Amino acid sequence: MLKIPKPVLFSFQECLWFLNRNYDDCLYEVTENSAIKLIRLGAEVVLFEVREAGNYLTIDILNNANPDATQLKAYVSEWFDTTPDLGPFYELLAKEKDLAYMVKEYHGLRLIGIPDLFESLCWSIIGQQINLTFAYKCKRALVEKYSYKETYQGKDYYLFPEPAILANVTVEELRTIQFSRQKSEYIIGIAKLFADNKISKANILALKEEEAIEKELIKIRGVGAWTANYAMMKCLKCPNALTYGDVGLYNALHAIKGFSKRPSKEQLDDFFEPFEGWKAYLVLYLWRSLAVPKYS
Asked: Looking at 217, 234, 251, which one is the last position of a domain?
């Protein structure tokens, strides 16, 4: 068993709720008190379970893998975003009368990540302009058809498909699992870039400045501002990533602030300006607000 100290402002149950949300995600299983996931760490394929135990998150390896403990703990820490101190963010929320309730209601919710950049880009492309239920259905079809699985206690656990695999599928093959022609072309194109080492998470992070990162991602066919910022938020953990054009974000701002259903970029920038360094977290909490009524 491995252990990771929990941050002070951390709720494992809030994180599990956000991971679950009654969607059919095929890349992990959420139980009442744990999350189970299959990942590749170097040469090892690791099936592990994360639980809460006092002041720690515990990690149990469920298969015969023998991963590097430091790498596995780093992965889980990144997945659950355990590093940031949310205190300054909560201070900013508390100053906004329409948002102050979030400090209590979503206390300890972390920015659940997608540590793999290829996966995060593919997932954001899959989700473009369709509802989440159908997006998860498409992801499951892709994963089950093209990826590796292990079975544990009668349940199948999958990796996300490797770039080298998806780089060699055809548009017609992806069309058979309900991918549009355009999305098929985008995913195959991105897979080829990763398979040929023309793009990597390390190289993108080396750019350091968020504006430079966004510009580099947008050069990729199929990646617009929303897709780039989603990946920056969920994978690269850029603190000011803001998902312009996001319907969920707009619905939350309409409900809480009375914004129009399509606010202008200037209106969004003005609203988010006081949250410099925490814009991505505010997006997360606004998404979270869609699931429950606002508390007074």
From this structure: 234
Q: How far is CA 35 from CA 16, 61, 163, in A?
A: 7, 12, 25
Catalytic one among 116, 246, 269, 270? 246
Neighbours of 203 (CB within 10 A): 12
In a domain, 197, yes or no: yes
Tens digit of each residue's pLDDT (9 = 90 or more) over 73-105: 999 999 999 999 999 999 999 999 999 999 999
The reply to whether 269 belongs to the active site is no
| pLDDT score recorded for residue 284 | 96
Looking up residue 54, the CATH number of its domain turns out to be 3.30.310.20
Q: Backbone phi, then psi, for 2, in 5-degree steps? A: -105, 155
For the stretch 143-167, what's the b/e string if a residue is b when 16 or more beta carbons lie within 10 angstroms of its beta carbon?
A: beebbeebeeeeeebbbbbbbeebb
Residue 192 dihedral angles phi and psi, to the nearest 5°: -65, -40
- Number of domains comprising the chain: 2
- Domain with 157, as residue range(s), is 117-234
Residue for token digits 């505010």? 282
Please report whether residue 291 resides in a domain.
no
